[in-house]
Structure formats: C-alpha cells, structure tokens
Amino acid sequence: MLTENPQLVPPNLDVAEAVADLKARDVLRPRLMRLTRLLQRGNDTDFALGSDAMAVATRGYSLVKMVSDREGLTEIHRDLGSRFSKSRRVVPEEKKAA
Question: Most buried residue among 10, 56, 82, 88 by CB atoms closer than 10 A?
C-alpha cells in the first residue's frame, strides 16, 4: 500500500529500506529453516547416543550386581550403586492417610 501511494508516506519513513529488508528476510528464511532442521537432527543424534550409552551402562551395572560377590567386585558394585540408586518417591499426604 505504501509503495503504491507514495504521496501518503512522510519523508522520514524509508519504505524502500523496509521493502529491501523484507526481500533479505525472504532470502534468509530458507537458510534458517535448514539450520533449524540440522540442529534438530543434531539434538536427536545427541539424545540417541546418550540413550545408547546409558543402556550399556545399565546392563553393565546389572552384570556387576549379579557377579559382585563371586568375583570380588563388591566395592565397584557399591560405587556404581550410588550412581544407579533409585530415588524414593514422596508419597502425598492424602495417600498416607488412606
């Protein structure tokens, strides 16, 4: 509307610069979309790698638990146990009373 009616535009309002900004934004947007997708894929990969490592660590801890007494791994079992201990759930007061 402003470019079609230049008589309405005050001299201190730079419509040409705004139009140039919009064109630059149109060029930038596809690049930002690609970067966003790439970042999401990187985050997904990071999560998957951490999940895989945690699964191996959990299985390894289970093996240490099973053989710790027989193989003299009691101290390692105890040290690892502090990392894999389950936190106790806090029971709401309503359930305690029931």
Answer: 56
Residues 6+ apart with CB under 8 A from 73: 64, 67
Task: End-to-end CA distance of the chain: give it in Å, rounded.
Answer: 69
Classified as helix, coil or strand, 98 is: coil
The model's pTM is 0.58
| Helices 15-71, 74-84: inter-axial angle, 10-degree rounding | 150
Three-state DSSP class for 13?
coil
Question: Rounded CA gap, 36 and 56, in Å?
Answer: 30
- Each residue of 45-60: b (16+ CB within 10 Å) or e? eeeeeeeeeeeeeeee
* Structure-derived torsion over alpha carbons of residues 87, 92, 96, 98, reported in degrees to the nearest 10: -130
